[in-house]
Amino acid sequence: MGQVKASEAFTVVAEGSITTPKGFKAGGLHCGLKKTDRHDLGAIVCEVPAAAAGVYTLNQFQAAPIKVTQDSIGTEGKLRAVIVNSGNANAVTGKQGEADAFEMRSRFAERIGVPAAHVAVASTGVIGELLKMDKVRGGIDALPEKLDGSREGADGFCQAILTTDLVQKSVCVAVEIDGRTIHIAGAAKGSGMIHPNMATMLGFVTTDAAIGSEALQGVLRQATDMTFNMITVDGDTSTNDMLVAMASGLAGNKELTAAHPDWAKFADAFRYVCEVLAKAIARDGEGATKLVEVRIRGAESVEAARAIAKTVIGSSLVKSAMFGADANWGRIIAAVGRSGQPVNVDTVDVRIGDIATLEQSRPVPFDEDAALAYLKGDTVVIDVDLHMGESEAVAWGCDLTYDYVRINAAYRT
Amino acid sequence: MGQVKASEAFTVVAEGSITTPKGFKAGGLHCGLKKTDRHDLGAIVCEVPAAAAGVYTLNQFQAAPIKVTQDSIGTEGKLRAVIVNSGNANAVTGKQGEADAFEMRSRFAERIGVPAAHVAVASTGVIGELLKMDKVRGGIDALPEKLDGSREGADGFCQAILTTDLVQKSVCVAVEIDGRTIHIAGAAKGSGMIHPNMATMLGFVTTDAAIGSEALQGVLRQATDMTFNMITVDGDTSTNDMLVAMASGLAGNKELTAAHPDWAKFADAFRYVCEVLAKAIARDGEGATKLVEVRIRGAESVEAARAIAKTVIGSSLVKSAMFGADANWGRIIAAVGRSGQPVNVDTVDVRIGDIATLEQSRPVPFDEDAALAYLKGDTVVIDVDLHMGESEAVAWGCDLTYDYVRINAAYRT
């Protein structure tokens, strides 16, 4: 397998996937929820009870599968599997929707011979329609045969979780702990309704590290705050967002806790996996032509830096300017100024790429042609230094394009 | 003059304008700030010192003219004039920008023979470029000749404050107080960067009512909270938003205070003027094809109702669905659910026009063709009843369209 060095602490496994960590199989198939013949049902299965953790949407209208997954992970912090459908969010579907989500759990648990409470359920797609359970049941019955531990199994799963996504989102890293090679891998889907505090986003992290479910929950929460909660596509938070992590323990390291000498190394590799997926979601935002990264430096606190970064990345005017390759720093500072966070209006620097456009809140003449060339690239970095303190944050998003409007003007119909 | 009945309390003066209230003249001209030959400098002048009040953007990067206007109104609560340019926001222009805004004030004050502190200044347009003061000076010197008390003068002013607006926004009402006919009129510009708490919005209200500046400030603040602060085009709050009211007192009524028997009638007429302008701004949002009105009922508090209404009206997904004439109530309740306000997830009704789509949080089958026909109209009302309390609020916005993206991808270049 090709290995790309990502830092001192870990390496990226270029051909790795969610089935690279020991103990995991995955797969997907088309059961009939999507109108096309694309996969719409998939699962990840672990051969042993994996330590499990989850974070969920803050939208008050939580979809039925969220309740099921919370119940499963809440029971004993263990999962053997997660089953996921796309094409239908099973959200705002009332008691029947809940019954359907619980049936997905129990039927799949039975097919693979594990306790129902060891299965998590996730759904993504249209809100407010009942699942076609005849299709789902047939799919669940056929799914175990599709599971395998190869890249093909992982690809099948990754296809099954997509909706308006254009590309699969997957990453795998290797990190040495206690002389063992531990793998951490992830898969995600995103596209619309993407905004901090979880979005139309499903994410799944597998690892063969030995770690307890509480420690896993801690590292997942910390990584989420720095990655998935720092992306936005359109400011909308969906009813179905869910991120689930499963740790098989089969790598044979000593159990990871905050006291383990390699804890920081593990947490950093875990964060990296989440960051790659989060950025991939932002880059593949509905209609997006580029990834936009906003770095806020010199803030009074991390909370302020995060809030300002999210305000800038979420601004429709900034996003439209990025689409138009327009170095419109005025809109950037207008967003900084309405963030509700402490800002010294006389000390702000704004750089677009390495082009200084504002220094100490004064416009700087810059080469418009160079700015245009930079902004036409597929990644744009906006760097704002407030010169007030030492705190910083990074947020990711995308440009606002004709295609975003086209996709969302006609999604349901 | 044609009169349209708007309520028991006041009548709309169809052909009225900001120069209809006694004592006011207005005018506009092209001084050279806009590349086209459209008007870019205008003024409203009152023949007596008018009681004055203002509300301003909450963006921390306030444009230079905001400081000037606050200084003028703060001096003794009186104005003789407001001078406005478009094409350049005079924002983030540092000490020179401030000096330029003060020079606009003093030069125009001198030309019309009033104290400098009786002149307010407003600017709208591109951020971060210094005003071409040679053009502005020439314009100021020529402006007094353009002022007149007819509809033509008002039209000249209304043209001068537009940027990407497509239509002029103007309204006039008449209300009987103390046996006198009082007129209240307004003019506004909007378009992009429109979001609650003041936007790229300039608004001017003239009245010949006799009212003190403190009482006028109170009625202006109250009306703003229910109207201008309840509209959004794109969630961005500009550096230049300003709403200024001037009362000449020439109608001859007894001074209006909260103790006056007709206070409520006056406040209602004043609110109506602001509401007409706010809705006109929303309808003419950049790229908009329709006005969207969101009514939240049955909320626990007015604050909650307002916050939920603003979340729904600001959702890019809801806005895109409105452009696509898609009765996508799922996005509406997803926005309700992420508003951060108290919501009972089991008791929500959603109507689109008079079509029920969700009752007690359960989807209701509806006639898709009827919904499509309704949504293709130029005004869409979304009505959400939370069934939790007695409070309600209304917010206004527009759809998100290809043209919004087109306009904002190429604004500066």
From TrEMBL, chains A, B:
It comes from the Bacteria. The keyword Transferase applies. Keywords: Acyltransferase, Amino-acid biosynthesis, Arginine biosynthesis, Autocatalytic cleavage, Cytoplasm, Multifunctional enzyme, Transferase. SUPFAM superfamilies: DmpA/ArgJ-like (SSF56266). It is an enzyme of class 2 (transferase). Catalyzes two activities which are involved in the cyclic version of arginine biosynthesis: the synthesis of N-acetylglutamate from glutamate and acetyl-CoA as the acetyl donor, and of ornithine by transacetylation between N(2)-acetylornithine and glutamate. Belongs to the ArgJ family. This is Arginine biosynthesis bifunctional protein ArgJ. The gene is argJ.
